[in-house]
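Follow-up to my earlier ticket, as requested here are the two runs.
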Amino acid sequence: MKRLNIGMIGGGFMAKAHSMAYASVPMFFWPTEIIPYRKTVVEVNEELAKNAAERFGFENYSTDWRTLLDDPEIDVIDIVTPNHLHAEMAIAAAKAGKHIISEKPLGRNAKETEKMLKAVKEAGVKHMVAFNYRKTPAIALAKKFIEEGKIGKILNFRGTYLQDWSADPESPLSWRFNKEKAGSGALGDIGTHVIDLARYLVSDISEVMALSKTYIKERPISSGPLDNLGTVKSENTEMGTVDVDDEISTLVRFDSGAIGSIEATRNAWGRNNFITFEIHGEEGSIYFNYERRDELQVCFANDSAEEKGFRTIYTGPAHPNGEFLWPIPALGIGYSETKIIEVNDFIQAIANDTECEPSFEDGHRIALISDAILESAEKDEWVKIEG
């Protein structure tokens, strides 16, 4: 059995999610020929790095991410840092011959992601961008139904990602509200997940017409180094400027001929992690709500008249990845399970020399679409996706 040594850069919320996945993969996807091993984690100072290693089960820790590049024992670089650090780290990791998994969005804009994609292609390393929601079994089941033609030709996609953690104007000014570090606001942070789902389930996006809005122009500057997503109020009375979008709403045209819409906001009181899509086809419809992630609602045109209407399928062992998770349908799929599936897909691609999905190619394409959305919102006109 081969050991795959992981070098992780970052020790926050996403580091916890990825570390849980590495620890859990052998428990769920067994037997396996390759085991991820938490070798070294990197944080910005000694205290945070040591704490991350102890908390997340890493053998070593460092305060310099470049030490991972020079370590011949490190096989994978896992990037779970703020967005502005992704490009430099990924390009350097590729040049060092390391396989790479990076949190989304892949970069702040398409200029960055183009360089990242070029680097991994030239190096011949495996590369994945962590759009984990597409790994949800119910979403994979929706993909299966679509590929089997059960809803026929797709006519329309309507997707949302709504949260409320930044609706409070007293939520601190984390890096997520800073264009230099984040690239964009709700669009890059959560909207890109819906773009990924739209591309995964329907087809690529060819053109957009968007609106963008920043509701809260100033916030208290964060009083600590951790990004708590607005759950911990800042003790700082000094205010800082918000220069990214709080909400985007866009019409989309797909390469397939379908049309649709995508909405993302972090200012929707009462919405926690409200990722939804509804897809209408010539032969049926599919609806999904991530807050009820064990469920997929379907309606097929060939249902009898007395059965016509949406019905609920509860995902379990009979559905994608279900045999590896829990033995009873609707027992409970969580965020951690999507990360476990994601990490397993990544390490199996390394073990079997197959392509990763979603790859840096997908991440770059999503960056091109995101850039077009921001351009459309600024110009108030349809923008074609170039590249």
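Run two:
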Amino acid sequence: MSKLPVHEYFHSWQGEGLHMGRSACFIRLFGCPLHCPWCDSAGTWHPDYVPDKVERLESEELVRWASSKKPEFVVITGGEPAIHDLTDLTRQLHETGLPVHLETSGAFALKGEFDWITLSPKRAQAALPEVIAKASEQKWIIESPQDLDYWWQQLESQLSTPTVWLHPEWSKRRDPQILTAISEWIKAKGAPFRAGWQLHKLFRADELDPGIAKPAPLGGNPELGY
């Protein structure tokens, strides 16, 4: 029986996107080849933050845990979860009646069945057209005002989702230039663009669960070379 490398798994609520505020179990898998300079889950890949031991759990264990929490759905995230074969995990979650959401960069082919896909494209590797087409919503991380034009040029012809969230990169969430740029963009273009936020961080909701890993945000720390 294959096992998945799990960085953390915890019960909280979805703090982003159209499902914001709903009870959810999160399974954060280990590993990501994209290495974003502002990653807020650097413990899944960065050598300065990788834990001494990464749990490898069978799907049955994860499904049993999630079912016991009785969430509205389960979110599989990372790192980049799509580097793993999620077929068995998603099948078993569905068999228990739990909807499955995926958060992905879209750079890797999907293996598994998902009820909702949040696509958050990254500069390091372009999202695959077939993943873009399957996305339920997009989330653009804006770390400079120029990012809006960049992602518009990259994805304008592929905006098939009804909603595109514009999130200020969290370490710059108080930067007036970025906040103003997002506001002006939405006023100028309207749908499908909407202002996004990470509401769970304001509540510190994830920290209430004992399964949460020690936070490891990079936030463009120049001392780490990012």
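The only thing I checked on run two: The helical segments are 59-69, 87-95, 129-134, 146-155, 176-189, 199-203. Let me know what else you need.
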